[in-house]
Prior knowledge:
The complex is a heterodimer of chains A (544) and B (150).
Chain A: H1 6-27, H2 33-41, E1 45-47, E2 52-56, E3 62-64, H3 65-78, E4 82-85, E5 91-96, H4 101-110, E6 127-128, H5 143-153, E7 168-171, E8 185-191, E9 197-203, E10 216-222, H6 226-240, H7 251-258, H8 260-275, H9 283-289, H10 311-320, E11 321-323, E12 329-334, E13 345-347, H11 348-361, E14 365-368, E15 374-380, H12 384-393, E16 408-409, H13 424-436, E17 448-451, E18 465-472, E19 475-482, E20 494-495, H14 502-519, H15 526-533, H16 536-543
Parallel strand pairs in A: 6-7, 7-8, 16-17, 17-18
Antiparallel strand pairs in A: 1-2, 2-5, 3-14, 4-5, 4-13, 8-9, 9-10, 11-12, 12-15, 14-15, 18-19, 19-20
Helix pairs in contact in A: 1-2, 1-4, 3-11, 6-8, 7-8, 13-14, 14-15, 14-16
Chain B: E1 14-15, E2 27-28, H1 29-34, E3 40-43, E4 61-66, H2 73-83, E5 89-94, H3 101-107, E6 111-114, H4 120-128, H5 144-149
Parallel strand pairs in B: 2-3, 3-4, 4-5, 5-6
Antiparallel strand pairs in B: 1-6
Amino acid sequence: MYRYDQYDQEMVDTRVAEFRDQTRRRLEGKITEDQFKPLRLQNGLYLQLHAYMLRVAVPYGTLNGTQMHALADIADKYDRGYGHFTTRQNIQYNWIKLEEAPDLLADLAKVEMHAIQTSGNCIRNISSDQYAGAAADELVDPRPYAELLRQWSSFHPEFLHLPRKFKICVIASDNDRAAMRLHDIGIQIVKNEAGEIGCAFYVGGGMGRTPMVAPLIREFVPLDQLITYSEACLRVYNRYGRRDNKYKARIKILVHEMGKDEYARQVEEEFAHLLEQGIEPPLAELERIKPYFADPAFKIGLTEKADRSDDKFARWVDSNCMPHKAPGYVAVTISLKPVGGIPGDASTAQMHAMADLAKEYSFDECRVTHAQNIVLPHVEIGRLNELYGKLVQADLATANIDQIGDIIACPGLDYCSLANARSIPVAQKISQRFEQNGKGEMLGQLKLKISGCINACGHHHAGHIGILGVDKKGTENYQLLLGGSEAEDTSLAKITGPGFDEAGIVDAVEKAADVYLAQREDGERFLDTYRRIGMDPFKEALYA
Amino acid sequence: MPDNLGTSPDDVQFRFRDDEVVDHAAVTVDAFLDQSNAAAVRIEPGDDARELLPHLERIKLVEVNFPGFMDGRGYSSARVLREAGYEGEIRAVGEVLIDQLAIMRRCGFDAFAPVNTLDEADAERAFNLWNEVYQKTTDGRAPIWQKRHG
């Protein structure tokens, strides 16, 4: 994985010094809270309901064991012994003291990490496919391109005061595991007819109040123009993105209101101009970055079969292991969704355990997924039994990846100052319900996503089943949505009808699941059945 | 909207130019485009700096106004002018704060007239904080990728 050179290190060290000075000026009253707010946000520091929350960037979701250990140490030193992995492959801490934040950032910098631009109206952490470098279906490893974009977007002087936040995702497979088209810019690394590698740009996707699937803006941007084209996309947005209404300020609204063809035309015009400015790093820079992501020394002649005599182990293998490009290996997803647990949370002990396991079983590498789980990307099939045993000991062996218990949920009203309703208790009750009724595994792939308000941090629009918490005359109420997908078959979920109370929404999810179980045809997932039979049979079951 | 507005040389707190401070009243972009003798123009966030490009030879001062520091359109305006070869003064006016000085410099601003005077020591620190930069702009600084590859 990528390692900092002296320049990268100097940049994060300087950032720590800058934020220390900003914090000093704030504590001395030299700057107002209004002036300080964007500064702390661009260092990942939010003021939540009860305390400051600090979000640490995990670029394209990749971590080494040392970094995971450091994240655990931070949870102990500055928080309450927990960290929360997020839908943008980051980690956040919920109980941070402002005066300690500069020291926390300094601790991060020691392990080549930072919290730069994890919040605020700027280009956020670049996300990617959690199986990058491991997936059999990828064209190339997308991470070198993501790293190139990370450096370009960090401290970009023109784009630190955008109309609104800006999220970029880079993938290199036709199978989208990163919700690429639900980003402000989604980039897919592709090959053109001439056999050259380049980038397809999808611009103007997003969730939030107004969910949109990003349209294709340009089919092919040559690799030696990637940064220049990105800069053109951003400049047109900075110029025309709405600033009169923060709910209409994302680029998706601009692309929608301007029309994708007109937006693309303006980008082309700016692109032609910027090509003459020489702002693109040479291809040699990409070549410098690539070897950091070279394959580890995969062994050859490994067994391709694990001992499946233990039924629990076999079920875990079936749900949590993903085929690997190297024979004899799999990518293992560690579920952070234990039955009745808080989705995405990991204790200090669990983070230390995952760091050790990454080192021992996966070439010292782990990944954060947008579904709030952790991946060990390169595990020998012959060592899976041993690994499983250690995961059981660390309470990390839940076998439910992409099943109904593998719920994405935002922090909700338990933590968030924007939320209208709690998300975590609903997630806990649903996972408990489907454990008790034994239907979880039977249902197969069923992605359930819960947001505690219309800002949609829990991706409810993209859930096969989505749940949206709203405030109904002072009480929490939950709307049910069906039919969304964040994958390559991207679609937006639709609301079934009137909402439910907390107990009612759990029943409603079970009723919807039962409709699927009764009506499914061979090989159909919940989503496929919904798409075939439509909303009506579900409505009948829900509101009869 | 009056045609004549803008800052005076006395309002300029920081300046990175050797020439004399321009003392023309800056007019709006519309007024500027209407009269051929104007030499100073003020760009508001909603103005398109590209409209000035055919007239760069007669411009001695561009003021870019930041009515609120969160509105970042002025950064693009300054870069557009510099990228087109404009070498006159670009003065940041309005809500200019310590923590914007360095990025404004990077975008081509070379004079600063903050509506509220800034602490000199804090400003000095801010201007000199960043030894390295990741991006190429027109400020003449070599980005990190250039240092890596010569």
